[in-house]
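Re: that backbone. Tokens:
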């Protein structure tokens, strides 16, 4: 009777524990779904581990295509911070695809219109978006490494056979039989075989442990695909059909996968309080069942890596579409869907007053990382040359136009009231530094960066080039800088290249007046203070306040007065003496 009561008490205890855990999980699920419904704008509030952030380009590096942003342009424009700003994805699949999407400019109108349909579907069907994102959150991440770090290195595991494992397992049969003839001898043989299996198990398990994370992710990926097929994503029928095709080929990986997925390594090595888990681990150590299943799964995965890649591409694409819709919702200063011209830039390099002649038209555009931006508009039919003092807004404006051009051709969204332009390939030369490791000076780094733009424009592949240059050839002396800058910018102002350039060299405004339109930003110096309105103005800058700023910063009058006299002398005589 006492044993029955004890067993009943244990049963009640287990039921209570399972019930409490189920209620906790259900409550967490409910809270998360509520967050997806009401507080989805906070999804981008996350910290990025340095190791993980370095792996975000894994999908991008594996999928090169024409029109992708190179590293110089990406870094010049601070696109890492923009990525963080709009990363409303919840899985490694969506995160890596979003990064890829931001670096892959589309040159195809239909491709962008297809994305637009997906974005609007998630915006018009919030319940479908919540269900989709909830499932993608279940898919989760792979830790500090990308899935591609594992699957691209499967060959390092070499050829693996289960013959040895099967043979060792079969040896238990004669040893068990020997126990009927000579129990001590048979038992001794079983113990020796178990010890050998356990020792050899840990040696081999250490080799495959890192890959179990990737296998677990693939299994979760297949599970999420099962759920999404039933989620009623009406606008995603074509994608779901492709999902079914890829999933069918990977289906054998799922059979008995619990032997591998439920091991202590897959649970992070924590088996405390899990009696069944501990027992299962001992079964694995003695009979190598997880090693056997792992080798089977490895063989399947090696044959169908492209099907895994296909599933990642599809789900990542859809999660990016959901993230784009949330990004649009987060743009409190407004957004628009871009318009693309049928003509290529170069068909209209002159202005006659007609709007159709403008190559790029940006209405009230702003930088999406600014919380209180000053919006600017421009309608340009040829190159643009910006002048103005430091901190007046030149670099920010260049980045504003560049980022909106990129967003237009990647996520079909602009931080502006209107954007109209042809399709471009985008390059920049803005935030360069000395290459200390390569032993190259700033000037060498700069002329190489500019040369790559000219090379891209002269290449046969791709479309016209949109480029952004901040302070061209700042790494050399004034005379040669102006002479070389004039000729380089003339080349960048030719048909097929649309160039936005900023400079302090006012001489360039005269030397390039046949190739570039002049715009400027200006500052106001009053009552011993300086202020900027950050509004784009037509024409070249006329103010000269660099020496005046020295006064405002408290430089001795001896320095500023002599500087004024020296500057006036040069403007009058053309000589520094």
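Recovered sequence:
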């Amino acid at each position: 009777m006492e044993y029955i009561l004890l067993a009943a008490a244990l049963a009640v205890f287990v039921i209570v524990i399972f019930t409490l855990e189920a209620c906790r999980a259900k409550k967490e699920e409910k809270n998360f779904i509520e967050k997806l419904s009401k507080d989805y704008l906070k999804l981008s509030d996350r910290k990025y581990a340095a190791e993980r952030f370095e792996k975000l380009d894994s999908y991008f590096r594996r999928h090169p295509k024409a029109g992708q942003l190179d590293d110089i342009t990406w870094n010049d424009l601070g696109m890492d911070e923009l990525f963080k700003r709009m990363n409303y994805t919840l899985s490694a699949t969506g995160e890596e695809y979003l990064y890829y999407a931001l670096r892959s400019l589309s040159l195809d109108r239909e491709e962008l219109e297809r994305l637009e349909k997906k974005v609007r579907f998630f915006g018009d069907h919030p319940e479908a978006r919540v269900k989709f994102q909830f499932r993608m959150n279940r898919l989760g991440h792979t830790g500090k490494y990308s899935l591609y770090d594992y699957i691209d290195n499967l060959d390092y595991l070499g050829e693996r056979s289960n013959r040895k494992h099967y043979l060792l397992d079969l040896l238990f049969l004669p040893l068990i039989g020997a126990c009927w003839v000579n129990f001590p001898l048979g038992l001794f043989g079983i113990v020796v075989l178990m010890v050998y299996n356990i020792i050899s198990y840990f040696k081999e398990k250490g080799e495959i442990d890192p890959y179990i994370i990737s296998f677990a992710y693939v299994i979760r990926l297949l599970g999420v695909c099962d759920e999404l097929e039933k989620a009623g994503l009406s606008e995603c029928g074509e994608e779901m059909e492709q999902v079914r095709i890829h999933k069918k080929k990977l289906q054998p990986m799922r059979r008995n996968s619990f032997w591998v997925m439920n091991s202590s390594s897959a649970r992070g090595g924590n088996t405390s309080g899990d009696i069944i888990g501990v027992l299962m681990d001992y079964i694995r150590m003695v009979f190598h069942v997880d090693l056997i299943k792992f080798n089977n799964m490895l063989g399947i995965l090696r044959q169908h890596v492209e099907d895994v890649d296909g599933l990642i591409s599809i789900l990542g694409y859809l999660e990016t579409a959901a993230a784009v819709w949330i990004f649009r919702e987060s743009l409190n200063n407004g957004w628009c869907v871009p318009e693309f011209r049928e003509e290529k830039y170069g068909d209209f390099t002159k202005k006659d007053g007609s709007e159709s002649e403008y190559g790029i038209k940006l209405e009230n555009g702003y930088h999406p990382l600014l919380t209180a931006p000053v919006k600017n508009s421009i309608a340009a039919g040829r190159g643009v040359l910006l002048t103005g003092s430091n901190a007046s807004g030149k670099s920010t404006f260049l980045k504003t136009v560049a980022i909106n051009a990129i967003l237009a051709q990647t996520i079909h969204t602009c931080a502006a009231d209107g954007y109209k332009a042809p399709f471009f390939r985008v390059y920049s030369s803005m935030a360069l530094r000395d290459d200390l490791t390569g032993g190259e000076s700033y000037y060498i780094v700069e002329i190489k960066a500019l040369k790559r733009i000219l090379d891209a424009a002269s290449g046969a592949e791709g479309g016209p080039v949109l480029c952004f240059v901040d302070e061209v050839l700042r790494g050399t002396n004034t005379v040669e800088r102006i002479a070389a800058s004039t000729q380089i910018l003339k080349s960048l102002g030719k048909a097929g290249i649309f160039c936005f350039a900023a400079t302090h060299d006012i001489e360039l405004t005269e030397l390039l007046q046949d190739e570039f339109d002049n715009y400027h930003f200006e500052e106001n110096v009053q009552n011993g203070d300086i202020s900027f309105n950050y509004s784009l103005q037509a024409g070249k800058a006329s103010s000269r306040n660099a020496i005046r700023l020295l006064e405002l910063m408290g430089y001795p009058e001896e320095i500023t007065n002599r500087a004024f006299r020296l500057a006036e002398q040069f403007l009058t005589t053309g000589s520094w003496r």
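Residues 267-273, 348-356 have pLDDT under 50 and may be disordered. The longest strand covers residues 360-365.
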